[in-house]
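Support case: user asked for a sample of complex input and structure output to validate their parser. Sending the pair below.
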Amino acid sequence: MTIRTLASAAILAACVCLPSVQAHDVWLLPSSTVLSKAGYITVDGASSNQTFHFNHRPLMMRDGPSITAPDGSAVAAENLLQGKLRTVFDVHLKQAGTYRLAVANSGIMASWKEGGETKRWRGTAEEFVTKVPAQAEDLSVREGSSRIETFVTVGEPTLPVPIGDGLELVPVTHPNDLYAGEEASFRFFVDGKPVAGVEVVVVRGGTRYRDQQEKVELVTDADGKVSFTWPAAGMYWLDADIADDKTSVKQAKERRLAYTATFEVLPQ
Amino acid sequence: MRPILALMLTLSTTATALAGGLDVDIELPRIDVADYRRPYVAVWIERPDNSVAANLSVWYDAKMRNDEGEKWLKDMRQWWRRIGRGVEVPIDGVTAATRMPGKHRLSFTTGQTPLGTLAAGEYRLVVEAAREHGGREILHLPFHWPATQPVQSSAQGRHEIGTVSLGVTP
């Protein structure tokens, strides 16, 4: 068995991360976000408690990342490897335009008591009916979806086609056209529609080199939009969260939606 | 490429006296480092709103195998943002090989490629240089077009660019 197949097997065996309240930041960190010719990038993925510092767990992904080329076709990650502290993969960017790199998960989590013992289950809404008892002691059902993204552009930026499912960022300012001292705007959509009240946090990378997190906290307006000015060049981590009652199983009272993305802001 | 460029420069210098245009003198400083590479340099004209009026000159390494030299075009960050990412290189009469440290004159004639015809108004000449293992620098020289008499201006770089002089000829 090669190292690569071993690594793939390990990733396949890894759990699906369902969003709860995330105790740690999850992120994808691309080696480049702007390229002037076709070529490779490498991407790190991790869950950590300091932005872009691999100090906790690798980013778990059951089926590998979902990479969409500018023409909408799917691109397979190469050399996918899950280490102890980070997950790594390479992407061959052959087309001009903007690539979307994403790790998306959704599903149901349930816990209940059976004969004094706590049972836990996670899976899809379809499996839920057969795997989780309709009536049980202390039955708790939670539903969630999460999306972790970053964008990389070869040549001229193009607009990625919206997903239309779960919480997502819809660019007003292109995510690979961000510059220090300039204002950027993004809209947040849930299931394809703009949503007010999404809580957005933006943190510049390198938190371990400063005393304060310097988080920027924003809330989307009626158009689902937030706007802010990048204070300095660097890699930024954005986290957006909202909860609603549009659950796919009636036992779940609430659906939690989480979105995180990594952006590179260039100097002028 | 070189002889053609030299011929074009000769032609445009001759024409400048007749038709008006821009003379740009760019000094690339001698930088005493072991891993010196000639800088990539871009010269363009922008309007006060940053929109591009003319893409004048781009010096990069077009000779590398598999167009590998295109990989660093993005390091001229502003040029890449304003122009580079939307065009295919090489561009006739605009792109050329990188140049040695020293003084280099570029002359552009109104009505001719790549300067073309500028509408009357305020502009900035922009010179941006980026060097492998080195830094990046950008200089802006404002000018009014057309000039009623010859106007000279200059800007002084501190790292990757020496003095840049601009002569605007009516």
